[in-house]
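If you are new to this repository, start here. Below is one unmodified record pulled from the training split, so you can see the exact layout before writing a loader.
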Amino acid sequence: MGPQYVCVDDFEKEASKKIDKSALDYYRSGAGEQFTLNLNREAFRRLRIRPRCLRDVSHLDTSCDVLGYKLKWPLGIAPTAMQKMAHPDGEAGNAKAAGEMGSIFILSTLATTSIEEVAEIAPKTCKWFQLYVYKDRSLTEKLLRRVEKANFKAIVLTVDAPIFGQRWADVRNNFSLPSNLRLANFESSSSQSDGVHGEEGTSGINEYVSSQFDATLTWRDVEWLVKSTHLPVIVKGILTAEDAILAREFGCSGVIVSNHGARQLDYVPASIEALPEVVGAVGNDMVVMLDGGVRHGNDIFKALALGAKMVFVGRPALWGLGCEGSGGVKKMLQVLQKDFEITLALAGCKNLEDIQKNMVVHESVFAKL
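And here is the target side for that same chain:
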């Protein structure tokens, strides 16, 4: 009899036994002192749900529409790099599970499975592509053409990573991509494919990013990207109203409120803390989504009440993958889906439209007895 999984933490505990320590530290660590890493979850705990009673919830409908695509429920899988370090199924296994659960899967530029292979193995999954812009702009243009040809539905531009944050565990481990793996979206002989190697006292991923990513990007480059593809462009990494408004002005179709899993700049707000500000600025004009700290069904509910149209999970999908490959990801999503349905019903909501802003408030609203 295998492990019993009743919550996301169960998947993390089991995956921690199976994933190599260097890879595990890479996946789970945050920047600096990891204040924001802990805050991402703690901030959800500071929010209280105000449930309504005696409202017929005998039939639940969790479906939603995001950028014209009908989904079974408002949760997708966020982009995370180098997933084959967790399990040989890698990104393709994650994408397959997402499709089986009616979710969106976002493929990272830094994937260990290629765009084409993911498209072949998970043809029915709604797939978006997370983009980093390289100094060699022609590489970016080639990625766009490949993504369009492979029937991906959106481009997700990460805008909070001109360089990568200081993650102490990666430096201590001299983190490198294992020699049997490569960044599969590039030619195997190129420096973009196999350059993730850490020297003594360095992180290979940080060295790679410094040498390859274009740190000169501005909002004018976002405008260039929007004009360079027929796919909708979503910017990921927005934490302020000011940047959300700029995303709207430069032609983006949506924003993902995110602090990059707390892996970039420490002491920034938790994603859920920044969400109301962004929704207030552009929520009537753009699709606002969120990732960061989502571990429970009530986290999903809280984010939707505060204005997100959809939420994404990153690390939980890696834990599912590390446990049992694609099947483990599906089990993890099933656990979250069931938890969300229970939350929805007990809060007095039969569908997503029933979730109202006043159903979630900060703990400070209540008297401290």
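Two things worth knowing about this chain: The chain has a mean pLDDT of 94. The first strand starts at residue 47 and ends at 49.
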